[in-house]
Design a protein that fits this description.
Layout lengths: L17 E3 L1 E7 L2 E6 L16 E5 L2 E5 L1 E4 L3 E7 L11 E5 L1 H25 L2 E6 L5 E6 L8 H13 L4 E7 H4 L18 E7 L3 E4 L14 E8 L4 E8 L1
Antiparallel strand pairs: 1-8, 2-3, 3-7, 4-5, 4-8, 6-7, 9-10, 10-15, 11-12, 12-13, 14-15
Bound molecules: zinc ion (ZN).
Zinc ion binds next to helix 1.
Length: 243
């Protein structure tokens, strides 16, 4: 199992390039996926798309267009026409900073929006898909007549304007269970995990999360809710973008 080194990094913006080397390859449907001796790339998961980036040495440049985690962390470097890679040598790996920063802003905004929906309407986040241009969050609300788009947008933007620090820590599960700022159902997390990587937006929200985030809410900018639609009884899909 490859170490997910992005988990050790906070804030998740402006990631530095690093030296690594290819230790294994796998070809799936013509595309070559490589495992690196170490990697800080974010693999797709938890509603957040994977990092993109470059892997280079004197021999050439490979473009990383997807990263997935399974037993190993694999980086897709595209179709190389079955050319065998020369592994073992050091390579410079760099994460696409603009893409990462945008996803970290979008993702931290999702924490604020989920917290605001909980506070305002007892809304429970049941899914999300972070995007570069728009992000959607599915919210369960027993009484949908309570939902108000303007107050939701306002509360998120107020938290952004308050320039609240966003921090990362490791917490014991038992320390989180009775904290009202923990809005997710900890019962849904794997039972064997006792220590959780937790993202705290001070005084607003505490959430176990493996994604990438900004260091302060002011970096998000401003959000705008563009669309709200029904996803069935007691369920709304809220779509927002960064202004
Ligand atoms: Zn998160």
């Amino acid at each position: 199992m490859s170490d997910l080194l992005h988990l050790t990094q906070h804030p998740g913006t402006n990631p530095k390039s690093f030296i690594s080397s290819i230790c294994a390859t796998e070809i799936v449907d013509g595309d070559t996926w490589v495992e690196l001796t170490e990697s800080y790339f974010y693999p797709s998961g938890g509603g957040q798309p994977a990092d993109h980036g470059l892997l280079e040495n004197e021999g050439g440049v490979f473009s990383i267009q997807n990263v997935k985690k399974g037993k190993r962390l694999l980086h897709n470097i595209g179709n190389l026409d079955n050319k065998i890679l020369d592994f073992g040598g050091p390579m410079t790996a760099s994460i696409d900073i603009d893409r990462r920063n945008l996803l970290s802003r979008m993702h931290t905004a999702q924490h604020l929006l989920s917290a605001a929906a909980d506070e305002l309407f007892s809304g429970n986040t049941i899914g999300n898909q972070i995007g570069l241009e728009k992000t959607r969050i599915d919210i369960g609300i027993e009484d949908r007549s309570k939902f108000d788009k303007e107050s939701l947008e306002q509360l998120v933007n107020d938290s952004i304007e308050q320039q609240i620090p966003v921090t990362m820590s490791q917490e014991k599960r038992t320390n989180l269970t009775s904290n009202p700022l923990v809005r997710v159902n900890l019962e849904l997390l794997p039972k064997n995990v006792d220590e959780l990587r937790v993202i705290t937006i001070q005084g607003r929200d505490i959430c176990p999360c493996a994604g990438t985030h900004v260091a302060n809410t002011k970096e998000i900018g401003e959000i705008q809710i563009n669309k709200v639609k029904s996803k069935g009884a007691g369920k709304l899909r809220v779509e927002y973008s960064l202004v």
